[in-house]
Amino acid sequence: MAGTNSTAKKPEAPALHAPAIILVKPQLGENIGMCARAMLNCAVTDLRLVLPRDGWPNPSAVAAASGATDLLDNARVFDTTEQAVADLTYVLATTARGRGMVKDILDPHAAAKEIHKHNAASAEQKCGILFGCERSGLDNDDIALANAILSIPLNPGFTSLNLAQAVLLVCFSWLSSENPFKPAAAPESATPSDELQNDAPAPQAEIETLLKHLQSQLEENNFFRSAEQKPTLLRNIRNYFFRSNPTRQDVRTLHGIFKALSGNRDWK
Amino acid sequence: MAGTNSTAKKPEAPALHAPAIILVKPQLGENIGMCARAMLNCAVTDLRLVLPRDGWPNPSAVAAASGATDLLDNARVFDTTEQAVADLTYVLATTARGRGMVKDILDPHAAAKEIHKHNAASAEQKCGILFGCERSGLDNDDIALANAILSIPLNPGFTSLNLAQAVLLVCFSWLSSENPFKPAAAPESATPSDELQNDAPAPQAEIETLLKHLQSQLEENNFFRSAEQKPTLLRNIRNYFFRSNPTRQDVRTLHGIFKALSGNRDWK
User: Fold this and answer.
1) Min CA distance, B166 vs chain A (Å)?
2) Cβ of A140 under 8 Å from any chain B Cβ?
3) Per residue in A245-268, pLDDT tens?
4) What CATH number should be reported for the domain holding residue B256?
5) CA A26, CA A53: separation in Å to the nearest integer?
6) What residues of B are in contact with residue A178 (Cβ under 8 Å)?
7) CATH code of the domain containing B164
8) Total of domains in chain B
């Protein structure tokens, strides 16, 4: 899909330290499936369900997961939130408001940093993030189990966000906070071809040659109306072409353009 | 919903400088509606549609927008991507891969910073982000119009992300990125000086006019040797000039150069 990066290398470390996602009393199987998809997008794989309303497994979840079925197969189901977080050392509760509890309130970026910090302290630490049901969110007893509150700051005039979107934003903030994946580089080829060469930035000398040609042609065509204007005009032209970071191919194309415009006269 | 923050203060500046979201040939109305919802979550309100497959307005979009209907009502529809970006000064194309084009590839965080930077430079600047259709993303001619590529780094083993999720991640990255630049001050004088105007990035429409002139002149001079080569050559040329981020003065200078090289014939 547009906007995804399918060429980067496979992640190794992050999955080990990814937080568990705990959905407390989720209602729709479809939402559980979309959460699984969002989690896997971000290399987050530990899904835990507390009392899913429609039972488990749930075919609607599989249908909505767009292939993230291993993650659903490995999901663990618990009767209470306490059991679901029993092995975790740091737990965040996602809520819309602080609910008057005296806990730190973190945004997704700060939460990600906190999770990395806990993981760095010991390989045995494991963090988790609680999400409440679609209708009413987490109840106060669930929130009481958490070390801190996670709140997603949105346009206060329009905060309606579905469960899977909330999970996506939180997981993506975690993934990208110390992102081990670089944006896709140009495709690598085993035998660097001419094409690759052409894509390389032009050496300054090639741009210089182009500009010298251009200058002499412009002089011939009375482009520089007055001697006073000439230095400024030339500087602007040079400035633009150097700033434009042409590739070697771009420089060749510009030679071709200038030559063609000049009626193919005297352009080397 | 769980995970949203309805107590934060109303944002003031961001909505003014939010990037336009341009959906190119979107297929499902439902996805357009979900994009609108994701945008409004992040105080991004300028939605533009290029040739929506099922026409416009579309009741499926309204049904999926969860109340973000004003945003849909104000969406503008265009026949071409060029028209949709004509007033923009900085355009990002969201793609999965670099597509072998020589452009910077930014992740959502870096893209947000770049947008803030452009907005800080002048209140009159306007940025936009292109998203392709659900099935195949943007085509190369659309990407050629962009100043840089936006790529969302995800788990390379599972990059399937729907359109609205991609829009959500990009808009949320913009909303939550700290604006390191002061908001652009309004132009001080009622009659902005020529110099100020000249240093401003050229709107896409001015670059487009330049390239149309150039193309017709090149056609007249038999620059395009064969019909097969022409589309690729043209795309490379367009790619280079859009990527070069010319100022309004640069565009005027390029007009002057092309005109002079052409022996001052027929160049307006």
Assistant:
1) 6
2) no
3) 788 889 999 999 998 888 866 665
4) 1.10.8.590
5) 6
6) none
7) 3.40.1280.10
8) 2
Looking at the structure, tell me whether residues B160 and B209 fall in a common domain. Answer: no
Token pair recorded at residue A9:
């290398």
pLDDT averaged over consecutive 10-residue blocks of chain B (268 residues)?
42 62 97 97 96 97 95 97 94 81 87 88 86 92 92 91 95 82 36 54 89 90 88 89 86 91 70
Mark which of B177, B204, B239 sits at the end of a domain. B177
Would A4 be classed as within a structural domain? no
Would you call A165 an interface residue with chain B, using a CB distance cutoff of 8 Å? yes
pTM, entire model: 0.75
Residues of chain B in contact with residue A237, where contact means CB-CB under 8 angstroms, are 253, 257
B247: closest chain A residue by CA: A240
Distance CA B30, CA B26 (A): 10
Compute the distance between CA of residue A236 and CA of residue A169 in angstroms, rounded to an integer.
45
In a domain, A94, yes or no: yes
B211 belongs to a structural domain: yes
Contacts B109 to A, Cβ<8 Å? 176
Q: Does A9 map to a domain?
A: no
- State the residue range of the domain holding A205: 194-262
Cβ contact, residue pair A96, B67, below 8 Å: no
Which residues in chain B have Cβ-Cβ distances shorter than 8 Å to A152? 3-5
Residue A129, C-beta contacts closer than 8 angstroms, at least 6 positions apart: A19, A20, A21, A22, A91, A92, A93, A94, A111, A150, A170
Task: List the 12-31 stretch of B: residues with Cβ below 8 A of A.
Answer: none
